[in-house]
Design brief:
Largest interface: A-B, 15 and 18 residues
Helix content of chain B: 40-55%
CATH topology of the largest domain in chain B: Heat Shock Protein 90
Structural class of chain B: alpha+beta
CATH class of the largest domain in chain B: Alpha Beta
Number of helices of chain B: 17
CATH superfamily of the largest domain in chain B: Histidine kinase-like ATPase, C-terminal domain
CATH architecture of the largest domain in chain B: 2-Layer Sandwich
Strand content of chain A: under 5%
CATH architecture of chain A: Alpha Horseshoe
Largest sheet of chain A: 2 strands, antiparallel
Oligomer: heterodimer
CATH topology of chain A: Serine Threonine Protein Phosphatase 5, Tetratricopeptide repeat
Shape of chain B: elongated
Distance between the termini of chain B: 153 Å
Order of helices and strands of chain A: EHHHHHEHHHH
Number of domains of chain A: 1
Distance between the termini of chain A: 23 Å
Number of domains of chain B: 4
CATH class of chain A: Mainly Alpha
CATH superfamily of chain A: DhaL domain
Strand order of the largest sheet of chain A: 1-2
Shape of chain A: globular
């Protein structure tokens, strides 16, 4: 559904997006860790900083002509390997699935990016055995993906679809506050987990915003 | 053909690689599920918290509609329900594992899984949804984590017991009325209870980390050297000290006498040797003992002196050549001395009476003038009446007091005044109405009472130092008895300097006027007014 004037995402743009992700988690490291201290084991910010620093470093070592799909899979594998907590395998799976969905394409258009986001959400849901409303990353990722895919399907530009995605992501993130956790370490807290934002839902919003470039 | 073959081969390879990939994904999914379950299991908490969290995870892993978890206690076969994922009507107890298993087998759609056969026995029940069976992969993961889960429940049970014991112990320590303090090998305070905070008037935060000598100020108060420190002694040789008295600095910087026991706990793990003491404030007890000892010494001294006199006079009487006038004089002396003895015994009885609870005062209408007149009558016998000057107004309203007791107070105070003043000096009684009260002053020209001792002389057995140094005999009970009797009437008694600045003492006490019940109550001929004797 891409128009001629629409900018496409190539490997270079993707490398810049990965750097923006690293900067975003570094900037919000304390906030994420603080949220995780309430609901989890208090290392979410630290873990993501470790993961994205390792991913950025690794991606930098890949040859300049490496295609977007492989870049994303590399990021995913580094996240799985470098991060100690559950967020590593979960985000890692999302990046790996997105990478597979990108295939061997050199540039990514609207339809491909919609398929990538959709694969990422499905992979994360499968690995985490979670669904929307469980107070997890998916509460941000799933509605964001839906908004993006719907917009692309309706023929919106990538930019407009991305804006719709971020709006839905923010709403999804906020929706985790009243929820009682049904997955992860926050399960221990039972009803006491209500009233706090889920750190994964927050980091997911931050990463989507960084990828879009806002 | 070759092209077709190649295509078929490529397709087969792709299928294979896809299969391998899916296989790897499933393996990764299972690993991640196991990892998440392990994280939950390792997260601790009470058996109920752990059970609730783990049950949600297991129910989800097995794709079950709902689940329940029963846990056994150590040393008993019974299992108790600790968690359910939904409010379902199920037994809260099973008599034993076999009964629980049987119940699961009889219940429709329910699968019973024994996670632990060893204590704590753990039984998981999962209900399948109507449209799908339980997820085999999920059940496999649950089975894999079985051992881990049982160990975690054992740990949770242990933590629960430890927590309860720690709470109970700290309640005992905190609730104790004795100071409980623990020091490490360097004699630094590592624990101090609430009673200790009160006794030392120092917060725990302030005490922790300081040396025991700093916190107790025992060196300053008793001046003991470091080698005499009981904490250092038990730490050094491990021999408990079952009783040792010492002094420490308490609230307000005043020394407090304490009795304590000291024990040593051996080093354990990373923790070094510790010494614990339980100190009881015995200053009140000690003061009482000192008082009793003082009382016994005073009373025996006071009794022995007149007894020795009586004996001396009696021996004199035995002398065959004693003239009748001398005999008479000697007998008179015996009488005087026995009078003193009687007074002393009466005072001791008075103190016993004052300590009775409740103190009964028989109030009757009494005129102050009559009390003074009665006192003057006694003084006439002793030849002292000329020294008493009564300046109290004659027209005072009647008092509502126990005349016998107040008579004793007045007699005691005037006696005291005469005793400690130079011979032939005067004792003046003054009185004035202050509202519902009559304030009475007894002024003398005696040696006076030092200001620092004025409050103390009103306590039992206390005699001011200048009196103790004088040769005048006394028990230290008189003023105390007077104060208590006045207070029993609701009044007050205090010792002051003379307002005119002359040496001597003024004792002031207040007495209640008789309460007038209406105006007609004081009519002539009525029993109340009829009994008032005017002096």
């Amino acid at each position: 559904m891409q128009t001629v004037t629409e900018p496409t995402t190539d490997a270079a743009a993707l490398r810049a997006a990965i750097t923006r992700c690293r900067i975003a988690v570094e900037r919000h490291r304390c906030e994420l860790t603080r949220l995780d201290e309430v609901l989890g084991d208090g290392d979410h910010g630290d873990n993501l900083v470790i993961g994205f620093r390792a991913a950025e470093l690794h991606v930098g070592e890949l040859p300049g002509d490496t295609r977007p799909g492989e870049l994303l899979r590399t990021v995913g594998h580094r996240l799985v390997a470098a991060v100690g907590g559950a967020s590593g395998p979960l985000y890692g799976t999302a990046f790996i699935e997105a990478g597979f969905a990108a295939g061997g394409a050199t540039t990514i258009d609207g339809a491909t990016s919609a398929a990538m986001l959709s694969a990422a959400a499905a992979g994360l849901a499968r690995r985490g055995r979670c669904s929307v409303g469980d107070k997890t990353i998916l509460d941000t990722l799933e509605p964001a993906m839906r908004a993006y895919v719907d917009a692309i399907d309706r023929g919106s530009s990538v930019g407009a679809a991305a804006r719709a995605m971020l709006t839905a992501a923010a709403a999804g993130m906020r929706s985790t506050r009243p929820l009682v956790a049904r997955r992860g370490l926050a399960l221990r807290l039972g009803a006491r987990s209500a009233g706090h934002l889920d750190p994964g839902a927050v980091s997911c919003f931050l990463l989507l915003r960084a990828i879009v470039g806002q | 053909m070759i092209e077709v073959d190649l295509r078929a081969q490529i397709a087969a390879l792709e299928r294979e690689s896809r299969q391998a990939f899916d296989e790897a994904q499933r393996e990764a999914d299972a690993l991640f599920a196991q990892y998440q379950l392990s994280q939950l299991i390792a997260s601790g908490g009470s058996p109920a918290e752990l059970g609730a969290a783990v049950l949600v995870e297991l129910t989800r892993l097995a794709a079950a509609a709902r689940g329940a978890l029963w846990l056994g206690a150590p040393d008993e076969p019974e299992l108790r329900l600790i968690a359910t994922t939904a409010s379902i009507v199920i037994p809260t107890r099973h008599a034993d594992l076999a009964a629980g298993r049987a119940w699961c087998a009889e219940t429709p759609d329910c699968t019973g899984l024994v996670l632990g056969e060893e204590p704590p026995v753990t039984l998981l029940a999962l209900w399948s949804t109507p449209d799908a069976p339980l997820d085999g992969e999920g059940l496999r993961i649950a089975q894999l984590s079985r051992h881990e889960l049982v160990v975690a429940f054992r740990g949770a049970r242990l933590r629960e017991t430890l927590d309860r014991e720690r709470t109970e112990l700290s309640e005992i320590v905190e609730g104790a009325t004795d100071l409980i303090m623990q020091v490490d090998a360097d004699l630094r305070v590592v624990r101090l209870n609430a009673a200790g905070e009160r006794l030392l008037d120092r917060s725990r935060a302030d005490a922790l980390g300081r040396t025991c000598a700093e916190v107790l100020s025992c060196r300053e108060v008793v001046g003991h050297a470091e080698d005499a420190c009981p904490f250092a002694a038990v730490i050094a040789d491990g021999q408990p000290i079952s009783y040792r008295e010492t002094s420490i600095r308490g609230a307000g910087g005043l020394p407090v006498r304490v009795a304590g026991s000291y024990t040593r706990a051996a080093a354990e793990g990373s923790r070094g040797v510790r010494a614990t003491s339980i100190l009881r404030d015995i200053s009140a007890q000690r003061a009482l003992e000192e008082l009793r000892e003082g009382f016994v010494v005073t009373v025996s001294h006071e009794l022995r002196t007149p007894l020795a006199l009586v004996r001396g006079y009696a021996e004199t009487l035995l002398h065959p050549k004693l003239s009748p006038p001398d005999q008479l004089r000697t007998i008179e002396r015996i009488l005087a001395v026995s009078e003193r003895l009687t007074n002393l015994v009466n005072q001791i009885l008075d103190v016993a009476y004052l300590n009775a609870d409740p103190l009964v005062v028989e109030r009757a209408p009494t005129s102050f003038g009559s009390l003074v007149a009665q006192l003057r009558g006694y003084l006439v016998l002793a030849g002292m009446d000329h020294r008493l000057i009564n300046e109290a107004p004659a027209d005072l309203p009647p008092l509502g007091v126990d005349a016998g007791r107040i008579g004793r107070v007045l007699e005691n105070l005037v006696d005291n005044a005469l005793k400690y003043a130079p011979p032939d000096s005067s004792v003046v009684i003054r009185a004035e109405s202050v509202g519902d009260w009559l304030a009475v002053h007894v002024d003398d020209d005696g040696i006076g009472i030092p200001e620092s001792e004025r409050a103390l002389v009103l306590e039992p057995f206390h005699r001011a130092w200048n009196v103790r140094e004088s040769a005048t005999p006394g028990t230290g009970l008189g003023l105390y008895i007077c104060r208590r009797l006045i207070e029993a009437h609701g009044g007050q008694l205090r010792v002051e300097a003379r307002p005119d600045g002359k040496p001597g003492t003024r004792v002031t006490f207040t007495l209640p006027f008789l309460r007038q019940r209406g105006t007609g109550a004081s009519k002539a001929g009525e029993p109340l007014t009829g009994t008032i004797a005017h002096g």
